[in-house]
Amino acid sequence: MITRLDATLTADPARVLARLFVPGHELVVNTESRATGVLARILALPEDEVRSTLRDVLARYTGRHRDLPGTLAAHYEEISHRVPDAAALTAQRRTLIGAWFTHEYAIEAAALFNPSVVAHPDQSGLPPGHLRFVLSLRAVGEGHLSSVEFRTGVLGAGHELSLDDPGPHVEAGRPGPAVHDRALFAAVLAEDGSDAESASFLVSSLPARFGEAELERAIAALAGQRVTRHGGTRTAELARRIARCSYEVEFSPRSALAERVLWPQGPADARGIEDARFVRTVAEDGCPTYRATYTAFDGDRIMPQLIETPDFRRFRMTQLAGPAAKNKGMALFPRTVGGRHLALSRWDRENNAIATSVDGLWWGDAQTLHVPNRPWELTQTGNCGSPVETDRGWLVLTHGVGPMREYAIGALLLDLDDPSRVLGALREPLLRPRDDEREGYVPNVVYSCGALRHGDRLLLPYGASDAAVRFAVVDVPLLLERLIADGPPPAIRENSVA
């Protein structure tokens, strides 16, 4: 049923971002800055040494970044409030100060794994039977900080697979504020434990769609009632944090898709954007949109958030709410069923479940589909990406954790019209770690965040022990026959519905 391909992606420490660096903060931002002392020493440099040092920096680092002088200038502006008599500085000294407050971050230095794959927006110029794809990857660097990056490639008519050169640079794009949905905002505010009376007043002061200015006016109105609304101060703090958790990112049209990195920008994902599960959806007007859930990690809590993009150049990151939008491993269906949005959920940390939503943002109680019942999955089960539609049902790749914390990939088959019905479940894994896939950052793991159907084939990218990304092709008709032959899993426990 499955054929491993030769193509492999491994982490490349040469892929670096030029990030703001504040001495003393390093990767922990709540420590005391050493900016004042560093600035004093830079400002004491004679002008000829400024010129020679800047020449050396630009000679050594310009080729590693698309617009290094622009980046250094932007980083100078971010800390310029600490510079005494800034107006008297030469442009060269300002740029050099920016260099002292910049560091290179190797986004893949620790690991590269957990891929998902979707059809590329541009399928032009390909021979018959070929498919161009976009691969998303979880990259991990210093401090175990995760970001999402991309690659592109082509699946040939047989088992041929080629990966494009990702290009010499990486960039994190330009972040900006998002427009917020009032109903979603109210739901998240309630889940975060805000004072109900203060939250109700604040939300009632907002339009259905609002931005920063409207939110600040509503907060000011709430502050005017602080005598009778004692929870107003905390509610305002929560509201501002929630608003910052949703944001937009836009990349330069000069950048190639594989040079773009979704870097943590909001409070909810400040310590990592993990395990994006991309899926292509088509709106009622026929326009495709790419959507993904990802695990946002703030250093303490994890939660699923949503990515939406029409073109992989402009991205919107949004919070989700509801009892099923919890924990890791949420995956969206590619279309509505019965007029409702559907998603796979692992809200309880160990079972595969299905949830519904009216708007795709607030997710109600999840119904359990599949519980650990085979030896290779008794620790926990979960999905390996969004369901794939076939004429026999929804094909769901799963993961299971067995003895020695070994991860393997399995599969379920769900009814097309009623996906809460499980028609089949593999008795044995579809894929488990081969001997040459067992060593890595996390040993004994094969794991995927999403596969792509192309005719009777399923392209399955997978992480191998968090040390490499490899590829396999699955024969879809054979897999469907095996699922139907294996039949549904053992009956779900009576208390399995949330």
UniProtKB/TrEMBL annotation:
Protein name: Putative GH43/DUF377 family glycosyl hydrolase
Family: Belongs to the glycosyl hydrolase 130 family.
Pfam families: Glyco_hydro_130
Keyword terms of this UniProt record: Glycosyltransferase, Hydrolase, Transferase
Keyword Transferase: yes
Origin superkingdom: Bacteria
Gene Ontology molecular function terms on file: glycosyltransferase activity; hydrolase activity
